[in-house]
Amino acid sequence: LDIACASSTRSLFRARSLFRASQGPRVAMKLASVKLRLSTPVRSRACASIVGVSARYSGVGAARVDQRHRQSLALPERRSAAAVRAVPALLVRSRHCSSAAGDGPPPDVPPPEAAGELGDKADGSASTASADGDAASAAVGSASPVGEKEQASQALFALPLFRKPAFPGFFHIIQIGDQEILDFLQSMRRSGQGEYLAGFMTRELPKGLSEGDGESAEPLVAIPPTAAASAGNRGQNSGGASEGGAAKTLRRDTGRVESGDDLAEIGTMLQIVSLASHPSSAGGQVVVMPTQRIRLIKSISKPSPGHPLCAVFVEGIPDIEVPANSDDIRALHHEIIATMKDLLKTPFMYKDQFEQVIKYYNLDDPLKLADLVAGMSTAPRDELQAVLVADVPVDRLRKVLMIMKKDLEHSRLQSQFKSQIEDKFAKEHRKYMLMQHLKHIKRELHLEKDDKQSVIAQFKEAIALLEGVPEEATKAMENELSRLSSLEPQSPEFNVSRTYLDWMTVLPWGKHTTDNANIDKAEAVLNEDHYSLEDVKERILEHMAVSFLKGSTQGKIMCLVGPPGTGKTSIGKSIARALDRQFFRFSVGGLHDVAEIRGHRRTYVGAMPGKIIQALKITQVCNPVILIDEIDKLGRDFRGDPSSALLEVLDPAQNSAFRDLYLDAPVDLSKALFVCTANVTDTIPGPLLDRMEVIRLSGYVFEEKVAIANQFLIPQTMDTHGIKPEHLNLSSDALILLIRDYAREAGVRELRKLLEKIARKTALSLVREDEENRRLTVVSLDNLKKFVGQPPFTSDHMFHNGMPSGVVMGLAWTAMGGKTLFIEARGHLPRNDKQAKEIAAGADAGEAGKEGAGQQESKPSGSGARLRVTGRLGKVMGESSEIALTYARLFLKELSPPNNFLNEASMHMNLPEGATPKDGPSAGVSMTTSLLSLALDMPVIPDMAMTGEMTLTGKVLRVGGIKEKAIAARRENVGMLVMPMSNQADYLEIKPHLRAGLTAHFVDHFDDVYRLAFAGTGAPILATSRGSEVVTIVTPKDAAAPMPISCLTPSTSSESTTQPAAMADQRWQEVA
Hints:
15% strand
């Protein structure tokens, strides 16, 4: 201890005697005499330092030193009272901060702050500084009285450890994220009290901190952390840490706890080596040297403001003695050393620390070696705490060896994964380098040109092989090829030009397929794929005949219009098969972007040609069959009108030079056959519809559905569901009922669904049984409901016992086919004039509100009569009701002048099924007949349906959907039809078997409608008719096609197949 002090000889002798009296170790004192006269406070400070150091190394209690040597500190003539008062505080600090272990070098002794301030301050200031030191120590020393058991214990501040415990024998770096804890430790250290701490693991991890979160606390092994310590000292002196003194990102190695109960029982005493603050964030790091294991006896105080660490009583745990001749310990010791050497061969996390341990540390002590290994391990905190707690040498070594084996296995796996990734990367890199060398060698040997030249050469070769390319297209390709040669491969324009040339060279310029010239073969193909559809088949055969006679093919545009499920889309494939052409289909339903038809301009990113050019590329011919599906559902928005773009495509006079916006070159589409499909023609624009040949598919009647089910649907359903004919028996009666009461739509899509439902249930019953026990499933009238449920249809007949007056059956056309529609009219006359006025007033009051609800009202001026029409009618049908009421009044006045019912009564006309929208002019005849039947109180003749548009003069005008309406009437067993005279040709176009059993009357004036509707009912009869002669067409029932009865039925398993054909025909007549 070097002391530069100018003092009297007597003072120095007294200081020396103080050391001897305190029974402390001998300290060599080198006294240098300084000729400068120092003031008394300086000499007092030097003496106080000597006393403080002596007391800290002697271990003698403060009270004992105070009693024996207080008088010795009295300096002669110039003693300082403040220095004398500072000594007890130094001794108290030394008692609570002294180390119980005598091993290891003595710690550095910082100069007491209280005594250091006495040089230039008065006694009062020095007393204040000394009092601060007493207050700091009081946080530890103000616990409850110490008992006999607690006399050997010490009071220390407890530093909680979150991630891993600190093992004695080597340095540990602890990151402190809490700035208040770091400030508290620095203030304790400045006051000479923060030399030792008690380090304890927390019983549980704090919330928000997982065991694998971040890295574990890194130990500093082999040499004292001089650099860190010096950096920490500089940080304390300068107020901040250097760049090497703290980590960039602080771990949460320590923090606050609520009380000492959250700490583990066994820990270590930590001697603080250095403290350093983080330069850019809160917190810092502390380097500690664990000295020995300690046990927590009692918690003194909880953390409080200004004291973030809790104070605890601890006692030292003596070191375990290792038995001299223990084979188990020797074997475990050697195995740990061998495992350490194995870890050095792997990329272990603390490989450098292990190397330093082996080089500089003595590995003869197995327990110290176990502590070193456990401190450097990455094992879980619970396993490391178990090593710290273990008090049996063999158990501690076993736990450490187990931890090392796990670290070794983890390191081997890490090395294996690393080698696999490196090998994979090395192979790919080697392949890449070899490919580059290969390209270079080929280029040097002139075996391969660079990418740009090879691409240009390929395009030139492809262009030379093209035939029949238009001149404009050839020039476009040559210009683009010359442009490509001037571009760099890395340029974006290079890829644009390359893609354009790809499209131009891949198109089938001048390539055609030879059409089938065998008419019989084409007809056989069409009949094989579809039943009925004679109009479509005939049109295809006509196209083939024209091409055969002319010697060249010409593309046409056909539009198939019909209800859903009638085979419009599938007929396109059959047309391609019959003509031996390629087939391409695309749907335009909901299409809004015109670029899908005409392509994108090449200025856009990702531009490509339209669907038409894509069809030619996919089919590789110029004359494919292109099916444009759902053309009636085209959209239109700000991106353009696709229907306008289709005008050029579907116009035979323009599509010979179709110009796609992407290609910007003419393409001949005149050889392609375009087939369009639609459900209705109302939504197709007029100019587009004018360019197409419309072929209507009205739907299938009962006989056609039976034939389609037997020839197509049933075999396809069996094949797709894996059912053999011997596993299912679908009787003909069940099939008839299935079509009649379950599948009444115009197409056969619903019928297919029902057959598939039966097949699925049959397949389930077969799978549940063993293969040898599988039985035949019979579907008959009795159990049909078990397979398909209750029938959704029964009959459109609302009045089975005859229709009352005011009710007439009309015929309507829908997108799903034809349908019968009843029109009901009811009314009554007012009893007196007052009631008539009330009716008229009520009509005026409710007229405005009922118009918005889809109800129509007609009321003649100056009278109380009114007509209310309901049934969700459209505007056209509402106007038809007004025309019907007006003409009915005039006609009734001529027929029966005294009858004023239509002029005075309150009437209501209704069309049932109000949820279904209804509109159209074809109900005028039916409405007029219904009003006359109500006024005359005479029902019309039964089994009669009518359709036609009325005028105010009584003329019956032409309507549409005659075929659908006739099929609907025949389905409902209606025998007589009344139709406009101008629809006679439409009716005659219907096949005889579709109108078998129907009697159709064609009229052109309502007078003939009245005579036919009320014939034989007793109603007044007109003397003459203002119309032309009625034309009646009677189709006998014999014209109906014989009903096929072959169903999904084995030849010997059903009674229906054994019946003669005549009986089957008779049964069909009854059903029909």
